[in-house]
Amino acid sequence: MAYLDIKNVVKRYEGHTALAxxxxxxxxxxxxxxxGPNGAGKSTLIRIINRIIAADEGTVTLNGKKMTDNDxxxxxxxxxxxGLYKKMKVGDQIVYLGRLKGLTKADAVASxxxxxxxxxxxxxxxxxxxxxxxxxxxxxxxxxxxIHRPPLLIFDEPFSGFDPVNAEQLKVEILAxxxxxxxxxxxxxxxxxxxxxxxxxxxxxxxxxVLTGSxxxxxxxxxxxxxxxxxxxxxxxNAAMFTLLPPDPVKKADTRIKLAAGVQVRDAISWLxxxxxxxxxxxxxxxxxxxxxxxxxxxxTTEQ
Amino acid sequence: MNKLRLIIAREYMSIVGRKSFIIMTLLFPFLxxxxxxxxxxxxxxxxxxxxxxxxxVIDETGHYAAALPNDNKFNFVAIKGDTVxxxxxxxxxxxxxxxAVIIIPRDVDSTGVVNIYSExxxxxxxxxxxxxxxxxxxxxxxxxxxxxxxxxxxxxxxxVNIDIHAIKWSDTGDEEESSTGIAIFLGIAxxxxxxxxxxxxxxxxxxxxxxxxxxxxxxxxxxSCRPFHLMMGKIIGVGLSVLTQMAIWIVLLGIAGxxxxxxxxxxxxxxxxxxxxxxxxxxxEVESEFSSFxxxxxxxxxxxxxxxxxxxxxxxxxxxxxIFAALGSAVDQAxxxxxxxxxxxxLMFFAFYAAMGCAENPDGPMAFWCSIIPFTSPTVMMVRxxxxxxxxxxxxxxxxxxxxxxxxxxxxARIYRRGxxxxxxxxxxxxxxxxxx
Lengths: 304, 437
Known about the structure:
The complex is a heterodimer.
Chain A: E1 4-13, E2 16-26, E3 31-35, H1 42-49, E4 57-62, E5 65-66, E6 75-78, H2 90-100, H3 105-118, H4 134-146, E7 152-156, H5 164-179, E8 183-187, H6 191-197, E9 200-205, E10 208-214, H7 215-221, E11 226-230, E12 242-245, E13 255-259, H8 265-275, E14 280-284, H9 288-303
Parallel strand pairs in A: 3-8, 3-9, 6-7, 7-8
Antiparallel strand pairs in A: 1-2, 1-4, 4-5, 9-10, 11-13, 11-14, 12-13
Chain B: H1 2-16, H2 19-49, E1 53-59, E2 74-79, H3 84-94, E3 100-104, H4 108-111, E4 115-117, H5 124-145, H6 151-158, E5 166-169, E6 175-178, H7 180-215, H8 217-222, H9 227-267, H10 284-299, H11 302-329, H12 337-358, H13 365-372, H14 377-384, H15 391-419, H16 429-436
């Protein structure tokens, strides 16, 4: 049973359909990537889960129960476009956001202190938000999202606006939250971060799900049967078994071969091993970036 | 409801806690007092600051120069001379020791014209001094010239100053003295208070909504509460903050008034309320005028006016501020509001001027309809109220206004929840209409 279960969600606006029957199952305690190009419907779906807007059709189930307005206290949401009350003090702001999510004042204050300590922002507690650097504001916003320790966290482009050091700290915090049992829905364009942190993904394009599954599965589905071979010898093409590919622009030393249809990796390797002096080999799996571009592009061309 | 209270508290504190709010709240009464006392101070400086001006008087008639009163401002000196050239010579020779030359021509009795010559500017105070002194003197001279005994007294007796005492018959048959002047003033004052309060708060709410939207905080907040709560929290929070400001002003002005009144009371210059017994320094005339003012002011029945004022206040505030909130949600930046705002402003100013217009004829058809129609009723009914409006009209007006206000709040909430999440394109009235669906 998925923790967050979205079934056939439809949302129409005047003139266009933002979501045309989207389903998605997010298991408990995982980091789930919600991917898609701009305008695919990610934000609309996130807003529906947050109950900011209502779906025209379909259901959203949280922990086995149909979601109600009271469930928003179980969600922490970091929108892509960040925003805080600029004239409000850091501490007041975090406590306000926490109390809006249903914390008592005492709990919110305690939690606020704990998080400010953790992000080394203690001395900024009584400063106005506008006096903070952009990076610090982002941290305050993150604290405002997690202050009530929600079981479901939704991050929309969480790493945008962070420098590498802070992005790393944020990643550690997100992984820690997952290890403590939170389920995390992660919307991003940054495919490198998807490979780093996500276990499963759903790719939306033109209001529909075009790809879904675990990161490993998706990669296996999209592999092109390419092997990178390390050898001092010069490999000659063998039409029955493989063709030679131009070298990878980054790893120029590797010889890249594409297996012919029906040829198993082990057969090709053992054949190569007999004829050449192999020092190593790796099966080349496509990056999430390549899969993303390929899927979105092919979908777009079939539609035209 | 908890969240609504939380939002109200935040909105309230975000305004009341601002430095500019505190400064404005504390400074405003002093600014008002300062502005009000400028004329007094100016007059004082004029009296004390200037040296006495020497004015030469060439009196061709020979008997009017004495009528000009010397005081600490002007000293009139009669000189011998017949012509204007002579006056010019005299002025030049004096070398600045006299500031003007007055010529009272021989035929002043028939023409009524007196000339003042000067190289400098002739100040109005000099003109008015000469005018009043000579008018009285020449008038009495004319009367005396008629040769009718006691004519002066006869004319004075014939002179009347009409004073109107409006007596109202109450249902019980009693006679009460009432003053339309006081009633009109009271009605207009209450109407203006409602207008400015709503106008001021409305623009503040609109700017707050736009700011929240441009800040992007709004998406975080509506993921924690319903947009309706955010909108209502804002409307109520801003309303409470402006009420706080007004309360502080009333208290401060009250204190200043009491202090000022007792200071003036000691010098006996103004008949203050606490001075009624101390008649020694107050002339009987002033006293009777003042006590009749007090009697008439007290004759107005304030209880229904205050109750209705508070009701119209709340209802009108809700009606217009909901519109302002909805408009604020439809734009990305405050400068884009003007186009959407124009019709609302026109409506508000119509309500304001209708109230002013109805003060002339509070029982006319215009006043009647405008005090029943919801958008104008808060201001117009306030003007009518001191003139005893039939109860059914008041109730009808309230019922219509409450229904409309609630309806507008409902519509505004529908626009608001769509508006706060839509960015990029400037919403038109057509978009707003679509959002209602």
